[in-house]
Amino acid sequence: MHMMTGATGNAGAIVVREFARQHVPIRVLARNPAASPWLRELPGIEVVTGDMRVPESLGAALDGVDKVLMISSPRDDMVGTQCRFIDAAQAAGVGHIVKLSGKESGTTFDPQAFRGTRWHLAIERYLEESGLAWTHLRPSQFMQFYLPGSLTGVDARRGALVMPIGDSRLSPVDIEDIARVAVAMMGADGTAGRAYDMTGPDALSMAEVAELITAASGRPYRYEPVTAERKRALHAAEGLGPDVLDLLDEIYAGRRNSPDSRVDLSAHRAFGVEPTTFAQFARRHAADFAAVVSAA
Ligand SMILES: NC(=O)c1ccc[n+]([C@@H]2O[C@H](COP(=O)([O-])OP(=O)(O)OC[C@H]3O[C@@H](n4cnc5c(N)ncnc54)[C@H](OP(=O)(O)O)[C@@H]3O)[C@@H](O)[C@H]2O)c1
Q1: CA 93, CA 64: separation in Å to the nearest integer?
Q2: How far is the C-alpha of 278 from the C-alpha of 282, rounded, in Å?
Q3: Which residue ranges run through the membrane (predicted)?
Q4: Where does residue 244 rank: exposed (0-12), middle (13-18), buried (19+ CB within 10 A)?
Q5: Which ligand 1 atom is the nearest neighbour of the CA of 75?
Q6: Which of 110, 113, 120, 232 is spaced 20 to 30 A from 56 at the CA atom?
Q7: In what order do the strands lie in the sheet with 133-139?
């Protein structure tokens, strides 16, 4: 029996739908399944209640499970949450954990200078030292974070992509691709002890991202480079708290300081997944990029 956590989140919701689409059964751990009724509608998906941080809540959830896809929120409790879950999984007899990790695509991005990647490295090390079989899947920035309403900074009302990263390039990856790789990886032998970096197929400047959104949506978007201070003020006005503002400051600084971006399609190739270009992603979401504007 295979299980995944994090199925109600940005990445996990797309991953669990891919399991259902491919008719691959999986058990899903959710803290509050009632808040996500759509989960129970998915064919082949067994939903169980439990909290990754509370071992006593995981008995039934982990019963008979041999392999887990582990996902949780990129917040300051991520290390504690995932390490406690690793302990509980091991105690329950799970043999293999596939960790959805993360790695920036910037060629000179320092993973220790950004708390998100620092947390992932700490969890990866804990998992490796646990004695369990492990696999790390390390995507770069999600393409979905360019959708209007997300944190990244597409202001659809003004047709602006507002970012404090100058001319640096990024290689965002479509979560749909991550989902296909994750489903294949969960069913594959020979992945234990391996880390898979995964970017999208294009290293793009923010100006190029804005051009691709323009071409797909038919509405002009432009890149608006701003200072770190201005971006922090905009995020603060969106209601983000100091911890998230500090986290974002770090990732933007790291991206500013790393102008070039890697493209690594080895995970796509290893699991036979066709890489989605940003142009394809933007066309798929053309209505999202246009709709907010027409409603404004
Ligand atoms: N954003 C990016 O561009 C990017 C790039 C690469 C990697 N990543 C990594 O991808 C991972 C997932 O990110 P995301 O944006 O999908 O996160 P998210 O939207 O916050 O989703 C997190 C999921 O984990 C669940 N969860 C959190 N704490 C839990 C607990 N104690 N017990 C059970 N479930 C718990 C949440 O459930 P609830 O519904 O109960 O809260 C939710 O389903 C993160 O580790 C992030 O660092 C992100």
Answers
A1: 8
A2: 6
A3: none
A4: middle
A5: 20
A6: 120
A7: 45-49, 26-30, 2-5, 67-70, 96-100, 133-139, 194-198
Closest CA to ligand 1's atom 40:
31
Q: What is the pLDDT of residues 211-269, one digit of tens each?
A: 999 999 999 999 999 999 999 999 999 899 999 999 999 999 999 999 999 999 999 99
Pocket test of ligand 1: the residue of 71, 78, 97, 198 to mutate, having most ligand atoms within 8 Å of its CB, is: 71
Most ligand 1 atoms within 8 A of CB, residue of 72, 171, 174 to mutate: 72
Beta strand 204-205 with 169-170 is antiparallel
CATH topology of domain 2-141+173-199+261-275: Rossmann fold (3.40.50)
Chain mean pLDDT for the chain:
95
Mean predicted confidence (pLDDT) in 7-12 = 97
Integer angstrom CA distances of residue 214 from 134, 186, 283, 289: 41, 37, 10, 9
Place of tokens 């432009």: 222
**Distances 220 to 41, 156, 292 between C-alpha atoms, Å:** 38, 10, 13
Dist CA 288 CA 13 (whole Å): 18
